[in-house]
Design brief:
By secondary structure, the protein is of the alpha/beta class. It contains 16 helices and nine strands. The termini are far apart.
Length: 434
């Protein structure tokens, strides 16, 4: 397995880690150059300059959607029109198999805080929130201490570094729901309401938290900001092996020899991550399929293992890069059982706001349970494919249902025989009668 040599030139996110991988508190962070990017931005740059650099860097959101961060920032209205506005850091990391944000918050909390402060400066924001998954108890404890340290050093509070500007960061521990990854549901939850998504438009950039302009960014996205400001866009782009700029926290879980996550350049192949870093499959097992970045991403097969890990290539192959924390599925796994488990999760996490999602996902689970014990009906495959269509993009209120049926749709595409083998041949049901 490859040993990673981290430097500030090659690993902007993780080079701060010390030998024991203990928490990097403010004294150590500052000793290695921490908060220099914030001081540079505060003293020498205008908000429009910061936004321009982030746009030019090509930084894309690391939460899974991959929307360009600089463009998202540019959608916020001018300060003269709105005095109150918010920055929300989405730390509600609920995607199964994903723990990259948890790692960054628990190991290098000041990198995130510095990223929030620079972003607040760019967006003319004085109050920011970190919306944290409630199960991340350790991260909560560390972030509280880190915010306290940053306040003591004068980076948070009133008249920061004698600039006349005020910055506050509030830590909010959420109730822990998958739907809070959807930004308008997150806003509802932050406001103390049920975490249902809101109708868009208006978009949060104009009508967000408490009706004010709001920008929502992921933990890993914000953690990239200090290095971009300090080292520039050309350096950041050159870190990548592909058209996507920079590096990404990537990994492999499942029955591999060395499951974990590593900061790697965009464009590295899935095979390199699996074999060189995760050590390959456990002895006696073969790779049957894999999900590139979370439970909501479509399954890919062994023939896709040499694809470069970047947004467009994985999308062209019929899946999504998502969080880039891949899951290996070995050849002993029954695909129907795997997908049933995934769909049970998504059914349980549905907010119930719209009918296709609320009723469709439990129906899918029910059919998959029947197929799993070879008691499926003749029309079950037709019903599953119809549900994949009716819960697809544009058919529901948010992206929860389309994400939920993505693994099912791809599983049927690549492993249809495993589903069909669960049909009880003597049972026939007319779909129109259901």
């Amino acid at each position: 397995m490859k040993r990673i040599l981290r430097t500030s030139e090659t690993h902007p996110l993780t080079w701060w880690l010390n030998e024991k991988e203990d928490v990097v508190w403010i004294k150590e962070y500052k000793k290695n150059g921490g908060y220099l990017a914030f001081e540079k931005a505060l003293k020498t740059m205008q908000p429009v300059d910061i936004i321009s650099i982030v746009q030019e860097s090509g930084l894309k959101g690391r939460g899974g959607a991959g929307f360009p961060t600089g463009i998202k920032w540019s959608l916020m209205p001018k300060k003269s029109s709105f005095d109150v506005r918010y920055l929300l850091c989405n730390a509600d990391e609920m995607e199964p198999g994903t723990y990259k944000d948890k790692f960054l918050m628990e190991k290098i909390p000041h990198q995130l805080i510095e990223g929030i402060l620079i972003s607040s400066l760019a967006l003319n924001v004085s109050k920011s929130y970190i919306f944290l998954r409630c199960e991340y108890v350790q991260a909560e404890r560390i972030l509280k201490k880190a915010i306290f340290e940053a306040t003591q050093y004068g980076y948070i509070g009133s008249n920061v570094l004698k600039s006349g500007l005020n910055f506050e960061i509030f830590l909010h521990s959420g109730a822990g729901r998958y739907i809070c990854g959807e930004e308008t549901a997150l806003i509802n939850s932050l406001e103390g309401k049920r975490a249902n998504p809101k109708y868009k438009p208006p978009f949060p950039a104009y009508v967000g938290a408490w009706g004010k302009p709001t920008c929502i960014n992921n933990v890993e996205t914000l953690s990239n900001i200090p290095s971009i400001i300090l080292h520039g866009t050309k350096w950041y782009k050159n870190l990548s092996k592909s058209i996507d700029s920079g590096t990404k926290m990537m990994g492999f879980s499942g029955k591999v020899k060395n499951p974990g996550l590593w900061e790697l350049p965009f464009g590295i192949t899935a095979r390199e991550i699996l074999e060189d870093y995760a050590g390959g499959m456990n002895n006696g097992l073969n790779l049957k399929a894999w999900q590139p970045g979370g439970a909501s991403t479509e399954l890919l097969t062994f023939k896709h293992i040499d694809l470069p890990m970047n947004f467009s290539t994985i999308q062209n192959a019929g899946s999504r890069l998502g969080t880039a924390l891949a899951m290996a599925i070995d050849d002993t796994v029954n695909i129907v059982s795997l997908v049933r488990n995934i769909e049970e999760f998504f059914s349980r996490e549905s907010c119930g706001w719209c009918t296709p999602c609320r009723d469709g996902l439990p129906w899918i689970v029910s059919i998959l349970k029947s197929l799993e014990v070879h008691q499926g009906h003749e029309n079950d495959m037709d019903i599953l494919e119809e549900l994949c269509c009716k819960l697809g993009p544009g058919k529901t209120f948010c992206a929860h249902a389309p994400g939920a049926v993505s693994p099912l749709k791809s599983a049927i595409k690549y492993f249809r025989s495993e589903f069909e083998s669960g049909i009880k041949k003597t049972s026939i049901i007319n779909i129109s009668s259901i």
